[in-house]
Amino acid sequence: MDESVNILVVEDDYGFRDTLQDVLLEEGFRVTVAQDGAEALKALEAIGRPALVLLDLQMPVMDGLSFLSELTAHPERADFEVVVMSAGMDLHRLPDGARGVRTLRKPFDRAELLAIVAEFGRRQATAQPSAAIARSPIAEPDPILTPVDAGGPA
After folding, report:
1. pLDDT at residue 21 is higher than 90
2. What is the domain class of 6-138 according to CATH?
3. Residue 11 has pLDDT above 90, yes or no
4. Burial bucket for residue 67 (CB in 10 Å: 0-12, 13-18, 19+)
């Protein structure tokens, strides 16, 4: 595992963000977290190019769609993938600014999350062997990762 590989998790629900971070850290990834799009843009300045961005859509300060609009100006945008996570939006009807992103409907389980990370890792390995982040899929189903915010799913 290349420990320099960084995954940026952008999620306002602390419990869900913490769970995602724990799962990814357990799998050997470096993880940067942000609680909204504005914080995520600042994080990108600090970390440079993440391998993958896991992005919630419904957040205060700057939501996921606004973050995606701002992200189009990032000089290395083509080098990393964005996976939009949401429970409350029709993910098949994202606006034009969100084209080219993957989607993951909440709640999802650990195996689904790691399968997407592994899929991206295989594509990165083909393009840049040193940036590979592929992991073996988990054989046994894991508990579902569900937002725990008292306001309901994010």
Report:
1. yes
2. alpha beta
3. yes
4. buried
Q: Which residues of the chain form beta strands (DSSP E)? A: 6-10, 30-34, 52-56, 81-86, 102-105, 108-109, 144-145
Burial 91-107 (b: 16+ CB within 10 A, else e): beebeeebeebbbbbbe
Q: Which two tokens stand for residue 136?
A: 């073996």
DSSP assignment of 133-153 equals ---PPPSS---EE----TT--
Percent of the chain with pLDDT over 90: 21
Token pair recorded at residue 84: 């939009």
Please state, in angstroms and rounded to a whole number, the distance separating the CA atoms of residues 80 and 76. Answer: 7
Q: Where are the domains of the chain?
A: 6-138
